[in-house]
Amino acid sequence: MKNIEMLVDQEEEEVISFTLPPTIGITGEQWITRLEARNFRISGYAKQLLRSPNFKPTVGKIYQVQILKGELFSNENRTTQNINDEAKQRNLIIPNAETACLVRENFTDEEIQMIGLVWLVIMHKPIIDSDGDLELFRVIRNGDGRRLSSYHANPIGGWSRANGFVFIK
Predict the structure, then answer these.
(1) Mean pLDDT over all residues of the chain?
(2) Is 53 buried (19+), middle (13-18) or exposed (0-12) by CB count in 10 A?
(3) What's the pLDDT tens digit per position in 117-164?
(4) 10 Å Cβ neighbour count for 19?
(5) What gap in Å lies between CA 29 and CA 46, rounded to an integer?
(6) CA distance 33 to 14
(7) Do the Cβ atoms of 97 and 124 come closer than 8 Å?
(8) How far is the C-alpha of 18 from the C-alpha of 31, rounded, in Å?
(9) Which of 134, 150, 162, 169 is deepest in the core (most CB within 10 A)?
(10) 124, 94 in Cβ contact below 8 A?
(11) Distance of CA 44 to CAs 48, 64, 129, 149, 151, Å?
(12) CA–CA separation, 48 vs 55, rounded Å?
């Protein structure tokens, strides 16, 4: 596992940039097996997203990731729309959902904590869960294990300041 010094290319203000390893065409079902075999915890809703026909693996893609820290936005302006608007102004691209698995696999909880965040929200095109809700993957650091989960794409009250929002450069 790489440490954060090796992963982070630069940190300017509230933006962190790094490069993920190339994709190798791992399907959602294969990601479930791969991550669980390495003691990652995957929520039931995240498994639904991984099994969705909208989860489309790629081969040979090298993602240049940028994380916009939640502190870039005031509390009342930390909405999905404003975050996406800021990314667009910075010429950032909506990531493929598989980016969530790569980020989870390559970032330890300690590294996420070192950059001052609790959740990394992957700002991919939302995927509908079994309840009919639009969901985004999130990588969570907490005391009960390295987690891959999902969350509503447009949370009531906006996002937390402790979140980072993952886009592609």
Answers:
(1) 91
(2) exposed
(3) 999 999 999 999 999 999 999 999 876 779 999 999 999 888 999 999
(4) 14
(5) 11
(6) 34
(7) yes
(8) 21
(9) 150
(10) yes
(11) 6, 28, 10, 8, 11
(12) 10
- Alpha helices by DSSP H, listed for 10-169, are 28-37, 44-51, 80-89, 99-106, 109-114
- Looking at residue 101, what DSSP letter applies? H
- Going along the chain, which residue ranges are E strands? 8-12, 15-19, 41-42, 64-69, 119-122, 127-128, 134-140, 147-152, 163-168
What is the residue whose two structure tokens read 């959902």?
97
Distance between CA atoms of 86 and 77, rounded to whole angstroms? 11
CA–CA dist 27, 2 (Å, integer): 23
Q: How far is the C-alpha of 18 from the C-alpha of 105, rounded, in Å?
A: 14
